[in-house]
Design goal:
The protein is α/β, with parallel strands linked by helices and about 220 residues long. The chain has helices at about 35-50, 65-70, 85-90, 110-120, 130-180, 185-200, 200-215, and strands at about 5-15, 20-25, 30-35, 55-60, 75-80, 100-105, 125.
Length: about 220
């Protein structure tokens, strides 16, 4: 995804000072999702006025999952009077690598509706009354929330993988201790030595030990 770049500025010169006024944000593209074609066009105009690039307008909500998976847009903006359950289910089903910062514009600002949207993967919500400044703030917020969520998800995945690896290694040590009559330290040293000799991770050798033991039990 393209990084957010603030550009197109105007330089105003006075006698003793220079003022830089930011004009438009560039480098961020948006896919607009809205069942009503005229409202989708209105949202597109508003985004373009704010300096964003609109990569497409999707009015067939049944095709959301497929379109979102293939889009090159940096962000997805969904305009829905009521958060559509089928649409949110499609958003929730997107693999992590196909997700984008997602903004929901809705007329239903109830706690339940917002919670359902966030749980599905929406990163920022705007209750109708949209203007340029609110759209810009929502996009910035969605991108920030998306980055934070992605970071937390990555940390959680790493923690889960580390725990899984630790369990496999512990199991392999137990097998070696039982089969070879070694203590824990010697069993671990054997695993580590084999990993170094083969140029693979310790857990890879541990998995081979566990798999071999399982085969012997068949």
């Amino acid at each position: 995804m393209a990084a957010m770049v603030w550009a197109r500025f105007r330089v105003l010169r006075g006698d003793n000072h220079m003022q830089i006024r930011l004009m438009t944000p560039v480098g961020t593209s948006v896919l607009v999702v809205e069942r009503d074609a005229s409202r989708a066009e209105a949202t597109k105009r508003l985004l373009v006025e704010q300096g964003y690039t609109v990569t497409g307008l999707l009015t067939d909500l049944d095709a959301f999952g497929e379109t979102a998976a293939k889009t090159t847009a940096d962000c997805i903006m969904i305009y829905a009077t009521e958060p559509d359950r089928a649409l949110l289910d499609q958003l929730r089903a997107l693999p992590t690598e196909q997700r984008r910062p997602t903004i929901l514009i809705t007329e239903n600002g109830s706690t339940d509706a917002i919670h359902a949207a966030v749980a599905a993967g929406v990163n920022a919500c705007v209750v109708v009354g949209v203007n340029g400044n609110r759209i810009r703030s929502a996009i910035d917020l969605a991108k920030a929330n998306f980055s934070n969520t992605a970071g937390l998800r990555e940390e959680l995945d790493e923690a889960r993988n580390a725990l899984r690896d630790r369990k496999v290694i512990e199991r392999a040590k137990g097998i070696i201790m039982r089969e070879r009559g070694l203590d824990e330290e010697a069993a671990y040293t054997m695993l580590r030595t084999r990993a170094m000799q083969r140029g693979v991770r310790l857990v890879a050798v541990a998995e081979m030990v566990v798999e071999a033991a399982e085969v012997m039990q068949l």
